[in-house]
Amino acid sequence: MMSPPKKDNVFRALDRKLGAVAEFTMRQYRTKLSTWVILGVGFIAIFIVVLFYVDSMQQEIEAIDNDGDSADWDGDGYPTGQERIYGTDPNNPDSHPGTFTPPIAPDAPEKWINEDDFDWDLSARGDTTAGYDDDGDCRLADSTQSQKDNNRNNVECDIVLDYNEMRGEWSEPNSDKLVDEDPDEEKYAKEAIHRAFLLAIGKMGFVFLLGIFLPLFLATGLIREEMDNSTIHFMLAKPIARRDIFLGRIVGYLGIVWPYIIGMGTIVGIISGFAGPGDGFFRFADLGMWMAIIFATMLATLVYGMLFCALGTLWKRGIILALPFAAWELGMAILSFGAPSASILRFSVIGWSLNIIDAASLVVWPNMGLFISMGMWGGGAYNSDFWGGTQLEGAAALNAFASDTGLGISPIATIVVSTLVLLFQAAVLWLVGSAIFKGKEIE
Amino acid sequence: MMPDLQQVGEGETQQWAPNITAPVVLLENVSKSYGKIHALSEITLALSGGVTGILGSNGAGKSTLFNLLMGKLKPSSGSIKLFGTDPWKNPAPYARVGFVPEHEKMHDWMTAHGFVSLFARLNGLTREEAKSEADRVLNFVGLSDVAHKQLGRYSKGMRQRVKIAHALVNDPELIVLDEPLQGCDPLARTTIMNVIRELGKMGRTVLVSSHILHEIERITEQIVILHNGRLLALGNLHSIREKMDNIPHTISIGCENPKELAKDIINNDAVYGISFPSGDRLQIQTHNLNAVHRELPALIVANGHKVSSIDNPDDDLESILNYLTGGLAR
Question: How close B59 comes to chain A (CA, Å)?
Fold first, then answer.
């Protein structure tokens, strides 16, 4: 049955040649065992990390009584914190709220663990105060005015937060004594570990590992393998420019790699959405992060695909040329954690890709810097460990994987600029790669 | 769109129009060298219409010539034009060219129909057009009934026919076949030869390369002989042959009783020598091959000889090359 000829729009015209090369490439890759091995290895690598994450989310984090007021110092059955509130002497076994009329029953010691959690407004901007003395040990009647306000901001029992505009970071919280000094370790750690996991797997797992290794193994041979197998002759004998063959091969490779990245991102996103901490059954807010991770990885595989395909076309052992690039990008990835505004990062692909994830993390989790600074402070001197550190579990990890966008513009503008730069890089590499291919004599 | 870097008119292949006054294939002083090795030297050639055999021994430059025609190599000097357009700069003429590469490797995971129809889309056909075009060309080479089998399961002759089918998509005016008969069984050879002859009859310009004279002889009379990268001869095989007929030739006849046959044949004026290499074989030396071949069949029938074979061991490319180069080719 003949259907009337459809009008030839741009897409149908493209479908004739470019679409044919892309479809051919996808079908070719689907029949190759090596494709499935590479995708399978990527899957396993990502899911080993996911298993560690899920395991850490299941583990209970020990609740520490940072201020030690759950202990019954005098052995009268009343925790120290309770005795302080009622004004009895925590060191005298005969002085306790049981002697009151009517007598007050002693609290369970657990009630005085994690009883003074963070009361911080994470939407705060600029210099501000935070904190509330939940257990009342700062506001004790017998404390002097200067004891209640030893940060001297004329507000009793609070914490002063300073935002340093120049360095773009929060300075260490300046707290009145015994305010928010016994935080809920588990609550903070789970949130921090969850965020650190998303940033770590997004940056190192998706953008670096998948973003570099999939193109390294799948894109380097796009033109080269056809040349080595002499099967490129079938394509070269057709009225199609080599530039379009190059592009069609890349589109076909993306037709395999992009759905894989979207699939992996979705699966890991759903797992972390359910396993992560939160009041709801699912962390819907994180979806923005996952969209950014998937988007950044897709752009990275596009740019690296163009680069590695060009290197493969240039030389039979293009993968040897590609390895120094991979090493350079790894170095840039590590640099971006510590010095996100280093100008050398602009000469990399990964620097721009990671910018997208960092920018999204600032949109999805407002005041990331304050949240990290809160965990690094961890309640102040009352809970310092053997080395004098006071940070809560998870804060250091989050501090390592989170960074500013380094461009000095708003997160949304950072995403737009980074996307445009990556697309520009891809276009330049496409032209360079097709020029190499075009000048290649093939026998 | 992106700026054009090197290519002239590339990307506008749809609008490309051939120069109708130009020959289909035109080479002017084309040379191709790799360092000090000259693969082709100063080839000038214009071809339009009919089947042309490109003859040459291995390394004579046949594949180099085809690779230059197909825009895979850039000539070191000289100019190449297909329908008046330089193929290295602009792939548009390939809309009217079909190419059968020499290489054996194919995409073994594809079916013949899938392979032909997918690559037909590179000619600018839509999916539907490409499918019906694949049906047509596979039918033309006689592979309709196995079109949906994987290429990996095909015999060599069938694979060659798929390659030819792939080249015939869009009914090209120029078809270039690089050693299409190599490694094929006799049946496949006959089929492929018929296909090539048929294309010639349809008025297409067909270039076939081979290093075996008899193959080309069964396909066409118009030949080009390449030797060490040079164009040695160009023209009608028979006229070359007629000149060769007057130089000494050997005919080898396998028969039951060579001595009896020798007695009968020695009377022919053209025969000047006879020998018996083995008990069932007779060798005749002649300086007029045609005269002997004219009389031999009648003589055999009249005297009731039992003949199993008649060969001309000299009648191959090598002897033509020898003749044309005055013995330098050996």
Answer: 13
Backbone angles phi, psi at B52, to 5 degrees: -120, 130
The predicted pLDDT at position A357 comes to 95
Closest CA to A205 of A75, A47, A93: A47
Least confident of B84-88, B284-288, B289-293: B289-293
- Closest alpha carbon within chain A to B11: A241
**Could you tell me the two tokens for A250?**
């890349």
B313 in contact with A at a CB cutoff of 8 Å? no
**Across chain A, what does the average pLDDT equal?**
88
pLDDT at position B164 is 94
Give the single-character DSSP code of A60: P
User: In this structure, which CATH number among 1.10.10.10, 3.40.50.300, 3.30.413.10, 3.30.70.980 belongs to the domain B18-241?
Assistant: 3.40.50.300
- Contact A9/B at CB under 8 A: no
The answer to whether A19 faces chain B, any CB pair under 8 Å, is yes
- Is the Cβ–Cβ distance between B327 and B248 less than 8 Å? no
Looking at beta carbons, which residues of chain B come within 8 Å of A238?
A: 91, 94, 119, 122-123
Strands (E), A191-316: none
pLDDT recorded at residue A341: 84
Q: Cβ of B7 and A438 within 8 Å? A: yes
Please tell me whether the interface predicted TM-score (ipTM) of this complex is above 0.85: no
Say whether pLDDT at A187 is over 80.
Answer: yes
CB contact under 8 A, B70 and A233: yes
Q: pLDDT digit string (tens) for A114-169?
A: 888 887 777 777 777 787 788 777 877 677 777 778 777 778 788 888 887 766 67
For A405-432, the pLDDT digits (tens) are 878 888 999 999 999 999 999 999 999 9
Query: Taking the C-alpha atoms of A430, A435, A439 and A442 in order, what is their torsion angle to the nearest 10 degrees?
Result: 10
CA-based torsion, A244, A247, A252, A253: positive or negative = positive
- Would the pLDDT of A10 be above 80? no
> Are A20 and B166 within 8 A, CB to CB?
no
Q: Are B69 and B25 a contacting pair, CB within 8 Å?
A: yes
Interface test with B, best of A16, A229, A247 (most B CBs within 10 A): A16
B221 vs B236: CA distance, rounded Å: 5
Q: Are B24 and B82 in contact (CB under 8 A)?
A: yes
Average pLDDT of the segment spanning A347-358: 95
For chain A, percent of residues with pLDDT exceeding 70: 93
Q: Find all residues with CB under 8 Å of B27, minimum gap 6, and list them.
A: B43, B44, B45, B46, B65, B68, B78, B79, B80, B81
Q: Does domain B246-325 have CATH number 3.30.70.100?
A: yes
Instruction: Give Cβ neighbours of residue B36 (< 8 Å, ≥ 6 apart).
Output: none
Query: Measured between alpha carbons, how far is A127 from B118 in angstroms, rounded to an integer?
Result: 65
Q: Which residues of B touch A427 (CB under 8 A)?
A: 2
Nearest CA in chain A to B101: A233
Q: Helices A350-364 & A287-314, crossing angle to 10 degrees?
A: 180
Of B14, B72, B94, the CB nearest to A442: B72
Res B206 pLDDT > 70? yes
Q: Is the pLDDT of residue B5 over 60?
A: no
Report domain extents, chain A.
13-61+185-438, 80-112, 119-179
Is A437 within 8 Å of chain B by CB? Answer: no
Domain ranges (residues) in chain B? 18-241, 246-325
- pLDDT surpasses 90 at B293: no
Interface size, chain A vs chain B, as Cβ–Cβ contacts under 8 Å: 111
